[in-house]
Amino acid sequence: MVHTKLKGVIVPLITPFKSDYSIDVEGLKWLVTYLIENGVNGLFVNSSVGEFASLTLDEMKTLGKIVLDTANNKVPIFAGISTNFTEGSISLGKEFKDMGADFLVAMAPYFFKVSERELLRHFSLIAEKLDSPIIIYNIPIYTGINIPISVYKTLVSQYSNVVGTKVTIDSLIYLKKLVRELKEIRKDFAVFTGFDDYLLPLLSMGGDGGVMGLANVLPRLHLEIYRNWERGEIDNTNWIKLLELTEIYDYCNSYTASIKAAMRALGMPIMNVTRPPLDTCNEESVRKKVNEFKNWLVL
């Protein structure tokens, strides 16, 4: 296992598929190698942009093993363990721990609209039964539940293995309160944004980095912004470029489709295939935009 401070640019891996929708193992190995060679701070397998909801449990485990074996302890590996029932997440988490995953990532249930008490119980049971560092994943656009800050505060106070959160929510006010109130309890608790657009604002608020989809494509752009921040510099030039790049999200019906179309348009060995019900995005629609960023592409 890789032990490191939780910070920087972590990539929520897309899942490469072949034209028959089977997992493209060679494509995934290429992606892991590409991202590590470009200097990312971690890899998150079975993410939302990785279409985890369209994967079987066996496929999720297979992806985890491929990523762990390919990464070979060069960067921390974050394994998604989200299912619709608590015991399922715990069981999956135990398997990923045995494989060697460094962090386990759990979101709120994404079918049942649970109460605050039930939500706290869900995460508490996961923290109690999994002897691994846990990342809480708050993504209300998919779960229908915005995790209350009060739930976070209880978890962070009671469970030392609840070590961070990825927050994919379009609210700077929520992020500001979350960072302030949780770091008052534990300074080492890490707060990451899931939106590329919020990387610099979150760092400015005292957050720790981002787990951002477009880092699959051009990780060095995200890393330059982050590393300049670490040096005490606000990199407005590259920040504006990143904001321009996020416009490709508007060209497609899903973040996943946009990312895969961009990767293909840039000549990466990743097929522009998403599993139904997600539709693919015409790579020509994003080609002009991503071609403006070819200088950031280091294959």
UniProtKB/TrEMBL annotation:
An MF annotation (GO) of this entry: 2-dehydro-3-deoxy-phosphogluconate aldolase activity
UniProt binding sites for pyruvate: V211
Keywords: Lyase
SMART domains in alphabetical order: DHDPS
CDD domains documented for this protein: DHDPS-like
One Pfam family this sequence matches: DHDPS
Keyword Lyase: yes
InterPro entries found in the cross-reference section: Aldolase_TIM (IPR013785), DapA-like (IPR002220)
Catalytic site: Y137 (proton donor/acceptor), K166 (schiff-base intermediate with substrate)
UniProt keyword Lyase present: yes
Family matches, as PANTHER family: 4-HYDROXY-2-OXOGLUTARATE ALDOLASE, MITOCHONDRIAL (PTHR12128:SF66), DIHYDRODIPICOLINATE SYNTHASE (PTHR12128)
Name by which UniProt lists this protein: Dihydrodipicolinate synthase family protein
